[in-house]
């Protein structure tokens, strides 16, 4: 059954002058020259990708040609790197499609061109050259959890290899591995179920469904767990390093190396 939105012409001049979000009191929408943070996203993503790729290359060069041995942390690093590249690439393309300016500086017709014209039963007929903004958001949401999971598991696997003789620390690492695996697997499944259109459901149907609203607390929880688990992974090796028989300066240096990896 066709949606009532199918009878509305979102490309009309009215929607070209109607903001996607009501501006705050005292603020007027600016559709012609809106302030955008899109370039900031591009610059930050490019710098982070360049640093990540250079470090990954050095890592594998050392492991393959110097140590001549790869570990689980190295194997997990590969999907983490692929996920980070995919996430950053899609995020950068979104900066050219109404992502960056405040939503009150974006007309509804801008989104309509890429999203709202998608009708029921037409989702599978959209050519690759016309991927919608919503589809890209879905890609970002879906790949984020497995990408961040692989990155955290890579660090925890490295800790496990280095600090295996330390029983207490080993169990703390096991706890971290189990926790992040269960949590990010759950969020991955949740985003797949709630964000990806079901058979016969259009993208606009997903946008207007209650499922999308339920993703908000999941995203908030994911953000909180991201920060908490980052601190956990950052602090985890410190007790083990402090127990090593070496000068204090070297201990500080080792902690700094682990801190760099956690970042």
Secondary structure elements and pairings:
Elements lengths: L12 H4 L21 H29 L5 H23 L13 H9 L16 H30 L4 H29 L7 H6 L1 H26 L2 H5 L5 H15 L1
Mean pLDDT over the residues:
76
Topology pattern, helix = H, strand = E:
HHHHHHHHHH
| Low-pLDDT ranges | 1-5, 112-131
Total helix count? 10
Cα gyration radius (Å): 23 Å
The biggest beta sheet is recorded as:
none
Helix content: 55-70%
Distance between the termini: 50 Å
> How large is the share of residues in beta strands?
under 5%
Multimerization status: single chain
Choose one word for the global shape. elongated
Query: What's the total number of strands?
Result: 0
SS-derived structural category: mainly alpha
Give short descriptive properties of this protein.
10 helices; elongated; 0% strand; mainly alpha; 263 residues
Summary?
With 263 residues, the protein is mostly helical.
What does it look like?
- By secondary structure, the chain is mainly alpha-helical.
- The chain is built from 10 helices and no strands.
- The longest helix has 30 residues.
- The protein is elongated and about 70 Å long.
- The termini are far apart.
- The N terminus is likely disordered.
């Amino acid at each position: 059954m066709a949606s009532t939105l199918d009878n509305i012409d979102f490309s009309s001049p009215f929607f070209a002058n109607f903001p996607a979000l009501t501006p705050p009191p005292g603020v007027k929408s600016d559709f012609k020259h809106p302030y955008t943070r899109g370039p900031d996203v591009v610059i930050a993503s490019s710098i982070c990708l360049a640093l990540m790729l250079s470090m990954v290359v050095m890592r594998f060069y050392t492991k393959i040609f110097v140590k001549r041995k790869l570990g689980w942390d190295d194997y997990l690093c590969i999907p983490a790197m692929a996920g980070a590249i995919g996430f950053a690439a899609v995020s950068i393309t979104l900066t050219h499609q109404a992502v960056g300016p405040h939503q009150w500086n974006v007309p509804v017709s801008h989104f309509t061109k890429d999203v709202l014209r998608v009708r029921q039963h037409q989702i599978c007929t959209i050519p690759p050259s016309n991927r919608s903004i919503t589809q890209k958001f879905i890609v970002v949401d879906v790949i984020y959890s497995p990408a961040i999971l692989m990155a955290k598991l890579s660090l925890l696997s490295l800790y496990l290899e280095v600090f295996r003789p330390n029983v207490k620390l080993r169990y703390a690492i096991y706890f971290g591995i189990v926790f992040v695996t269960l949590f990010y697997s759950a969020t991955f499944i949740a985003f797949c179920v709630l964000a990806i259109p079901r058979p016969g459901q259009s993208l606009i149907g997903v946008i207007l469904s209650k499922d999308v609203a339920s993703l908000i607390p999941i995203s908030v929880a994911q953000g909180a767990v991201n920060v908490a688990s980052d601190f956990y992974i950052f602090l985890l090796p410190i007790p083990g390093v402090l127990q090593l028989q070496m000068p204090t300066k070297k201990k500080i240096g080792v902690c700094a190396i682990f801190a760099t990896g956690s970042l």
